[in-house]
Amino acid sequence: MTAEDIRKILDRVAAGTMTAPSAARALRELPFQDLGFAKLDRHRGLRRGVPEVIFGEGKSADQIVAIGRHVLASGTNLIVTRLPPDKARAVKRKLGALRYHREARVGTILNQKIAPRAHGEIMVISAGTSDIPVAEEAAVCAEAFGNPLSRLYDVGVAGIHRLTANLESIRRASVLIVVAGMEGALPSVVAGLLDKPVIAVPTSVGYGAAFGGIAALLGMLNTCSSGVTVVNIDNGFGAALAATLINRVGFDRDGGGE
Q1: How is the chain split among helix, strand and coil, in percent rounded to 5?
Q2: Model's pTM, two decimal places?
Q3: What does each C-alpha distance from 155 to 85, 97, 190 come to in angstroms?
Q4: pLDDT range class, residue 115, cuts 50, 70, 90
Q5: Shared-domain flag, residues 84 and 135
Q6: Residues of the domain holding 134
Q7: Does residue 149 share a domain with residue 52?
């Protein structure tokens, strides 16, 4: 259920082409839809501007398909994160329109045209090539949420000239998502050079003392560059949503939308 769906129902009631009981039936499942094994939050798009996203890890392909069908029936786009290739193939056999973004491990069906609701561009930056899968989760989700987006990969602190050579394009972004493993130093460097919001994403990339991303997480939380926002380890989706909300602040009010 989207805001547009509700407006249409209310307009039909006001015009006399829909009865109040019919409207009540249409709105009955607005808060959530109980599927037995899952309770689909159909109200999330109205509350947050982004519909519920399916976390694919731990769910069977059949469960993802069942939830996905209800998401699509409600008129919203489908996004599935943490979707491995074998499970994606099983889902696609039943949801043929699924587009699988292999590197990001994200599946999407975008039935609704995505109207941009953003002040500017989100740029996703990765420290290394090994960080790209998490960076791609952030990028694919941010694009699906209606943001103009650019990518800048493999510009970590081991060769800082790779970053500084791209400062002009980085400055054009409104919000920066910076993804790094190992010691997690890149977000501190980026935030120290620019006056844009920086969302740091620690990855589980690194040798033993990286502790599966904990070292990068702690490094980002202890950054000397003030104002860096840090999400959980490997949480590209969380960074994309945070960046989207920042990029939308005041957009509709300032005349960017209705």
Answers
A1: 45, 15, 40
A2: 0.82
A3: 28, 35, 11
A4: low
A5: no
A6: 122-248
A7: no
